[in-house]
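Dear H.,

Thanks for agreeing to be a second pair of eyes. The structure we're designing against is below in token form, covering all 409 positions.
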């Protein structure tokens, strides 16, 4: 861990402490400013955003450029407002909503900008074919010395373009694993009625945030050499350590309560993403099991109660133990919601109406998340095997209950 002096400001390499300002106080001020304009999902998330913003001011000496994945289930969760705040506080902000990839390639250099990408889901979605270059840049730029080669100039010579730059990407739904695995992930939610924020007004808010940014830069710019030599003790390993190391480095430079606070946020948020991955695995298992039910019944429509009964009766599945008394209609609908699948009223041959699921609503999700295996040779019968269940205990109850309490918020 990088040693710091009693004031928590670390080695300022001969700079005047009064001119630079106290590091912990500057981070406290930045944290308060961000929290006034945006409701983040947890105190740990607010700490992480604060440190990520600060890390952009030393990114020229970093080995990894962590992404900030700002994702939410719907519009109106504060994603764009957070980007507004980031734009006024990070080092050399560059909004890339409508920016040509060629421009981005040429702007990144030894002193890279901080890329701010709104509507990132459109870059990685099925209709993003014309944004392949930008996708590749965002995937490669997490680690230094991963240039992109392009044919460039009047002589059409192979040219190396640097890709290393910190980036915040906001979008609806999860981004690809290549981004999420290299990101500090913020899972935004809509504000509750009692949650208040300060309205963002450019006339007043921008000067305030720019003042904090300038204090941040004045403190950190002289410490870039110290940051480059820092090898902080990390509470996580592998790729998570690569992503969080710049944030922990900043916290160690600040001292005071920030080193402990940063490591606590790192542990809480990485563990939260592990649980999220397990839940995603569970949802994929659900899609496979429902396809088996449709295949077994040989029908295009199944009542919700029949789907539930078939799932719960599967002795090899986790559904009888899901929640308090087994999987119910609420749980089922909630697990399928992210795939765009819902039940609807359906009138059956006997004239009775009931909530039901139709096969055609699952076709897209099946093709994307659990495609059919290659057909077996004639004469071979498929052997049913138990699918791997997620590690750890299954969530108890619907979202918002004990399962959510188990996750760091």
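And this is the sequence the design step returned. I haven't edited it by hand at all.
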């Amino acid at each position: 861990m990088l040693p710091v002096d009693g004031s928590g400001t670390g080695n300022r390499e001969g700079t005047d402490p009064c001119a630079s300002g106290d590091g912990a106080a500057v981070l406290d001020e930045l944290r308060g400013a961000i929290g006034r304009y945006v409701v983040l999902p947890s105190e740990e998330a607010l700490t992480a955003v604060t440190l990520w913003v600060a890390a952009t001011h030393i990114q020229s000496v970093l080995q990894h450029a962590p992404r900030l994945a700002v994702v939410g289930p719907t519009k109106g969760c504060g994603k764009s407002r957070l980007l507004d705040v980031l734009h006024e506080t990070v080092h050399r902000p560059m909004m890339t909503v409508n920016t040509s990839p060629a421009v981005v390639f040429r702007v990144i250099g030894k002193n890279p900008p901080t890329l701010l990408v709104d509507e990132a889901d459109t870059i990685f979605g099925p209709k993003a074919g014309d944004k392949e270059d930008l996708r590749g840049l965002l995937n490669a730029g997490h680690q230094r010395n991963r240039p992109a080669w392009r044919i460039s100039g009047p002589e059409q010579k192979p040219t190396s373009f640097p890709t290393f730059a910190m980036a915040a990407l906001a979008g609806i739904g999860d981004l690809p694993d290549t981004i999420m695995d290299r990101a500090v992930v913020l899972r935004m939610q809509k504000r509750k009625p009692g949650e208040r924020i300060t309205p963002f007004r450019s006339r007043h808010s921008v000067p305030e945030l720019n003042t904090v940014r300038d204090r941040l830069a004045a403190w950190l710019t002289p410490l870039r050499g110290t940051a480059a030599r820092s090898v902080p003790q990390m509470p996580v390993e592998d790729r998570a350590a690569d992503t969080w190391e710049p944030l922990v480095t900043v916290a160690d430079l600040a001292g005071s309560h920030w080193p402990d606070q940063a490591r606590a946020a790192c542990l809480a948020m990485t563990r939260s993403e592990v649980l999220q991955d397990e839940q995603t695995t569970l949802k994929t298992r659900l899609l496979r099991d429902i396809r088996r039910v449709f295949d077994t019944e040989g029908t295009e429509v199944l009542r919700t109660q029949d789907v539930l009964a078939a799932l719960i009766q599967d002795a090899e599945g986790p559904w009888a133990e899901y929640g308090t008394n087994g999987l119910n209609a609420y749980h089922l609908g909630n697990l399928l919601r992210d795939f765009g699948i819902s039940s609807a009223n359906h009138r059956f041959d006997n004239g009775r109406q009931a909530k039901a699921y139709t096969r055609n609503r699952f076709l897209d999700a099946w093709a994307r998340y659990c495609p059919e295996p290659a057909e077996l040779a004639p004469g071979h019968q498929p052997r049913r095997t138990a699918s791997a269940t997620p590690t750890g205990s299954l969530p108890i109850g619907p979202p918002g209950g004990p399962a959510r309490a188990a996750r760091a918020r």
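Two observations from my side: The chain is about 45% helix and 10% strand. Residues 348 and 398 are 29 Å apart (CA to CA).

Warmly,
E.
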